[in-house]
Amino acid sequence: MKLPTPKNGAEILLYSFFLRKKKLFDIITKEKDVLTPLKLTSLSLSGASYNNAKKMAQSWINKNLEVI
Questions:
Q1: Which pTM was predicted?
Q2: What letter would DSSP give residue 22?
């Protein structure tokens, strides 16, 4: 991943925070399944986003867990 050259101190802090967050996410999720949305939307609280996430979670549960 290549980040653009920062123009000021605020961008330096923003990019360093992003890289630290990404590294922490990689450490936490190492050797684990991660559910990510199929379609990225700007409206994360919309009904369509909820339904897509619910379908994704249900398919993961059906594939990886024994449903009683």
A1: 0.49
A2: H
